[in-house]
Amino acid sequence: xxxxxxxxxxxxxxxxxxxxxxxxxxxxxxxxxxxxxxxxxxxxxxxxxxxxxxxxxxxxxxxxxxxxxxxxxxxxxxxxxxxxxxxxxxxxxxxxxxxxxxxxxxxxxxxxxxxxxxxxxxxxxxxxxxxxxxxxxxxxxxxxxxxxxxxxxxxxxxxxxxxxxxxxxxxxxxxxxxxxxxxxxxxxxxxxxxxxxxxxxxxxxxxxxxxxxxxxxxxxxxxxxxxxxxxxxxxxxxxxxxxxxxxxxxxxxxxxxxxxxxxxxxxxxxxxxxxxxxxxxxxxxxxxxxxxxxxxxxxxxxxxxxxxxxxxxxxxxxxxxxxxxxxxxxxxxxxxxxxxxxxxxxxxxxxxxxxxxxxxxxxxxxxxxxxxxxxxxxxxxxxxxxxxxxxxxxxxxxxxxxxxxxxxxxxxxxxxxxxxxxxxxxxxxxxxxxxxxxxxxxxxxxxxxxxxxxx
Length: 455
Fold this sequence. Notes:
Helices cover about 25% and strands about 25% of the residues.
């Protein structure tokens, strides 16, 4: 009986590539009330809709070869007020993992930033135990203060990396990276970062901390440079994942990977653009299909870490009906919405995309920027004016939300606790003495079961 929580560990043989191909094809009524049915439920009536598929591909470890070349790693850590509590612990864990991954011959520097950026060493220093200890001491001695301006930090990091003579250079960006001072819009930060990073011999690795982390910004910078991204939730402690993540320093990923599908049987496949994935990790492709009498062969093509051609053939059985993996429709819908949101960010809003986002969100019951399902009825906010000695904030959100936090006007970020008897999220807080009376704007962050963040 699964009467209590349990955990287990397993190990994957990553020496060979392996593929898992899953499908689901049923009727619209099989998804009634947002609850996918399973194969043991009574069959539904109506026309079968097009199917859904998921390809999960494990990329093999590279064959043993010569040791990697010396590299320079510039570690950039957010030291603003938003990094209180769990985020600071996660930043410490990330720093330890990356400094432990450095080898003899490598060089590094540590940059702590808020509204300005300050490097520990004038220029990248040898990654000796003594210098690593000095950097960690500087991290422990620093005070969290001010807001977050990513632009000075990126400019200083690129300047430090360009001053190094090693063949391999990388930036490791650690923190939530949510702009709260100086350059406030992601689009403006990206515009200023583009000449610094895009097309340059630099690789960006990002470690996002907290539920409110600025994934769109770091994802863009990592994609430009064939880097990688790891997101740590508000209370996550992923020592093994951090160690594996940091071990990719100096490695070349499998690059320009695309899933090639034959004919018109496959459509709306995501990711819709070439991606880079490091060895011993997995990549996922999800899409729609029309059934075929014979199982076609898919081809995953790109470049090996040594830049020779990579190809993996996958046999793709496309059944007429298959209810064995009922979460695939929702998984695909989430990928489709992410694609449409990215399109809107790049090209601007259009009515057709917004209508489709809303329809998919309502059908599969998840939150999007256009269907936030966020409400704060007056009956929940008594007293409506926050009184002295009893500052409390309450939020009512969609049931799919599993974590919530709030950024207060003076920069502090607090997790909200769920009160099941009221079905609300709540936080109590202190107000600094220099904050004037009046109305203040707060930023509320919500995370749903799929790990998606909404502000």
